[in-house]
């Protein structure tokens, strides 16, 4: 992994970070991008805990869609693209940290304010809002698809067609019940400090999921059996059937989902500056090491889970990887455990993602005016209603990864860091750093627009 180095930090930003760190961390008046997960005392977070916090911000539902991306780009194609996106993510963090020290700014939306005044802050806040709505929709889609399978796996004997039509096995009904009974009460709270460690738990569950994907590669035969489950006590060896031959490069209309899904999966930039502020004795060089290590470890976990997921199902891999295991290993104890773990992680993470999304809406509507319960309640309900409708009516999670990844994710990951650097840094346009920033912006715009256009054309054809 490419390591971007930085010089020592400006003491101005350390003072700004110290002031921000001692503020109340989970109220509506804190900075929009303050990361509630893994917050440390204002004495500062260690290097290891900062790496874990950053990996918590990186890893999410995107890990479930990367095997599908590999199936539609090939093993080598996927590795090249994943390495490219991860390196560009590291470089864009390098630009953000440099601006952070230069302008003494501790949040992403304040960079927008510094660059384009209030319209810039509104632009960044709106982008973060849409990104978080997409992330919540992907999590709720997982509940819709996985909760019925989890309930069915505990039923004995195996559910008949009549039982599958029951309300407690209907994904949409269960999603609405879970939203009303669990997500809404948690999201309604103005403070979410007691959920501050749930993202760490979710991260551990994602690592556990990756381990299960590796283990279960040898539990499913190739070619895949048609319309039947696999006995738990049976052992299979993958055959030499042409269908079971991995492809190194694949190009198709579905390849357009690859980079957006990767951008969606590596987006952590809204959490970088708060983590920088919480770092013990923060310097740009130290924080860049944190970013490089966090991105490198996430790259490794993503690559392993995608590779073994692809080598299990090959061209039949689902856009949401767990669905394949539901079909062929519905009563496998390990698969049941990872399914329950993912569902628990999702339930705990949605309120945390909802929190900054709601703060973005409140900031756009009310500005800096004092907290208002009526506004708080209305915004919470409207946001959850929008997310719920998206999760119910969007037919495939790849659509969420594709659209959100090609628009807001590419903006936050590539376009905005380069654009902000060009406006704030004052470097000559012909300098190497400015040329790199221009290339980052151009790459983000071209890839985002091209991917979005191909995805829309694919929808029209289907």
UniProtKB/TrEMBL annotation:
Membrane topology: Multi-pass membrane protein
Domain of life: Eukaryota
Any one annotated GO CC term: plasma membrane
Pfam families noted in UniProt: Aa_trans
GO MF term set: L-glutamine transmembrane transporter activity
Subcellular location: Cell membrane
Listed InterPro entries: AA_transpt_TM (IPR013057)
Family: Belongs to the amino acid/polyamine transporter 2 family.
Name by which UniProt lists this protein: Amino acid transporter transmembrane domain-containing protein
Organism this protein belongs to: Albula goreensis
